[in-house]
């Protein structure tokens, strides 16, 4: 990827990430997060991860962040009172952030990270092998069991989310199947002798 | 190569800083966690290209799966908390205090 495109998309991503953190209205924060993810997926395109770039847009932006947007818009919250003052933990936060970033930066700057020509012969686009094909071959060859477990995790997440949120019929009439089935004629009709 | 790592590192730093700046609002905390996850995924993609190994991208695939599940359950819990105490301020969630 030409460096100029990387610089453009990376600066868009970093600026929108800053907006996420600093903006007051959470709706704007979610929208900036969406912008950040889209810009990052364009950076991923330049890193030869085409399938994951599109997956990031479709799955992450299309499902997860829109879910965030729904939640932010559905809950009736006065967000203005929530950010009244910076807490007393702010110096601690700044210190921890600076320490982590300095540590990682020292590690990054230590190595030269010049891609080794012997190693970096990934077959992206080479011999008409596409990224999705390569990734699919790799996952279904080496990580088949893990792939199934990922499916089970998603199923468990669906069931858990519905089970947590669902609270039965409210303010509407609905038949109670269990009660209907367990009804007994002797509870309804009492036969008396007509003497 | 270095500029990609610095990009990922700056996303990580912004996410961590956001955790401390927005430590009252649970929704914003979850969004900062998403930012940190994005920076971790970006690191995986960078090093997949650096080593010429598709395994890093496979990891990103699984991390995305688990992150989607985490977001769904986290938001469900958030809605439950809002139903019971009518607030999503972290400082109002103090019922477990001994």
Structure notes:
The complex is a heterodimer of chains A (about 200) and B (about 100). With about 200 residues, chain A is mainly α. Chain A has helices at about 5-20, 25-45, 50-75, 90-110, 130-140, 145-165, 175-180, 185-190. Chain B is mostly helical. Chain B has one domain (about 1-90): Orthogonal Bundle (Helix Hairpins). In chain B, about 80% of the residues lie in helices and about 0% in strands. Chain B contains 3 helices and no strands. The mean pLDDT of chain B is about 85.
Radius of gyration of chain A: 28 Å
User: Which structural class do the helices and strands of chain A define?
Assistant: mainly alpha
> Can you write the helix and strand succession of chain A as a string?
HHHHHHHH
The percentage helix of chain A is 55-70%
The structure class of chain B reads: mainly alpha
* pLDDT averaged residue by residue of chain B: 87
CATH architecture of chain B: Orthogonal Bundle
Beginning-to-end CA distance, first to last residue of chain A: 100 Å
Low-confidence stretches of chain A: none
The tally of beta strands of chain B, per DSSP, is: 0
How many domains in all of chain B? 1
Biggest interface and which pair forms it? Answer: A-B, 82 and 69 residues
Helix percent of chain B reads over 70%
Instruction: Give the overall shape of chain A, derived from the CA principal axes.
Output: elongated
């Amino acid at each position: 990827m030409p460096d100029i495109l990387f610089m453009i998309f990376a600066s868009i991503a970093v600026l929108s990430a800053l907006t996420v953190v600093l903006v007051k209205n959470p709706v704007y924060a979610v929208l900036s997060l969406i912008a950040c993810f889209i810009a990052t997926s364009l950076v991923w395109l330049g890193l030869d991860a085409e399938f994951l770039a599109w997956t990031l847009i479709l799955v992450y932006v299309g499902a997860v962040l829109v879910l965030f947007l729904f939640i932010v818009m559905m809950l009736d919250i006065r967000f203005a009172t929530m950010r009244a003052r910076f807490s007393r933990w702010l110096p601690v936060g700044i210190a921890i952030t600076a320490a982590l970033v300095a540590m990682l930066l020292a590690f990054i700057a230590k190595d030269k990270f010049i891609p080794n020509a012997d190693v970096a012969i990934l077959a992206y686009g080479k011999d008409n092998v596409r990224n999705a094909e390569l990734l699919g071959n790799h996952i279904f060859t080496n990580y088949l069991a893990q792939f199934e477990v990922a499916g089970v995790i998603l199923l468990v997440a669906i069931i858990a989310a519905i089970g947590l949120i669902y609270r039965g019929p409210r303010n509407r009439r609905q038949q109670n199947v269990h009660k209907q089935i367990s009804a007994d004629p002797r509870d309804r009709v009492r036969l008396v002798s007509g003497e | 190569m270095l500029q990609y790592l610095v990009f990922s590192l700056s996303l990580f730093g912004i996410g961590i800083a956001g955790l401390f700046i927005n430590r009252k609002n649970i929704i914003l905390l979850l969004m900062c966690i998403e930012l940190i996850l994005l920076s971790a995924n970006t690191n995986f993609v960078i090093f997949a290209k650096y080593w010429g190994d598709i395994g890093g991208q496979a990891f990103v695939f699984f991390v995305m799966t688990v992150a989607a599940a985490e977001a769904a359950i986290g938001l469900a819990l958030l809605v439950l908390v809002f139903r019971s105490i009518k607030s999503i301020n972290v400082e109002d969630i103090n019922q477990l205090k001994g």
